[in-house]
Design goal:
100 residues
């Protein structure tokens, strides 16, 4: 069975990074709010994944695919948030190594 593209792209976690480009007048709080949104989204996805996993184990879940998709969403989002964090730490370390 081949899924339409819209069905495949809906698996991608959303809501943690704004799709609009930053303007020259934007402040660092926009980036901070985007990161805070990413962490909030990650927590929500992990909570949903945990809830569906418990339902699957107890037999209360009719469709195991829901639990699998939720777990995959949480995993991919965690990897993205960790990658952004690592790049941020790397950039900070690069700035600290610069000579004045």
């Amino acid at each position: 069975m081949v899924l339409p593209i819209a069905a495949v792209t809906s698996v991608t976690p959303t809501g943690y990074i704004s799709g609009t480009p930053a303007t020259s007048g934007s402040s660092g709080s926009d980036f901070g709010s985007a990161l805070a949104g990413a962490v909030d989204n990650l927590q929500q996805l992990q909570s949903t994944s945990d809830t569906l996993a418990v339902k699957a184990v107890t037999g209360d879940l009719n469709d195991i695919h829901q639990a699998t998709i939720a777990a995959t969403r949480a995993q991919v989002t965690m990897e993205v948030v960790a990658a952004v964090r690592n790049k941020g730490v790397e950039a900070f370390n690069d700035i600290m190594r610069m000579q004045a």
